[in-house]
Amino acid sequence: MFRSFRAALGRFCARRAAAAQRDAPRRALAWLRLGCKFAPSFADTYPALVHLSRALDDRWGAVEAAREATVRFPDHADAWMLLGEALQMVFRQDEALGAFEQALALEERADAAMAAGTLYHRTAQFPEAAARFARAYAAGGGATALWHNAQALYDAGDHGAADEALNLWATQVPDGHSRLPEARAELRAKAAARAQVQ
After folding, report:
1. How far is it, in rounded angstroms, from Cα 71 to Cα 188?
2. What is the mean pLDDT of residues 159-175?
3. Do 67 and 98 reside in the same domain of the chain?
4. Domain count of the chain?
5. Is the pLDDT of residue 2 over 60?
6. How far apart are CA 17 and CA 88, in angstroms?
7. Are residues 129 and 149 in the same domain?
8. Whose CA is closest to 81, among 69, 94, 92?
9. Sign of the alpha-carbon torsion through 67, 100, 41, 16
10. pLDDT computed for residue 44 by the predictor
11. What is the pTM assigned to this prediction?
12. pLDDT at position 185
């Protein structure tokens, strides 16, 4: 019964925040912070608090709220995704990667694997990036995950595996087989350019 009361209180705070958001966004933030203290589940108020903080250009406030969500709900993958996204907004890429990896440890999900793969790729950790993009594909990431997987494999120098990923990609996009030579040339050119920069 107490949980139901807290849930109702959290929903009330969320409604008050929504009503105040346009004309009094700071008041909306206060309502959401209050709601976060009472709401018994992650989804009720934390995402709204983080997104409103970011919209008001309070990026560190968004990080603080997201971090609090992971403390209260450490087994909730969405909380770790929220933290990873907030950390990226303040350019804490290593910490963001840790948050995405934690989300992935809790649940096999395409968005977590794609986010982790992108960060590995940016830091030239190409085998790790390729592995995460492969996990993203296995979790339902589709052709986009295969494309990034192929790019990471080319960057890692594993052209055979990259060509296999591209061949699979070609089966999942319109006119994929006719686009395959151009796609292969594009990814190889990007890999060569990246190797020259390094």
Report:
1. 43
2. 95
3. yes
4. 2
5. no
6. 25
7. yes
8. 69
9. positive
10. 72
11. 0.89
12. 93
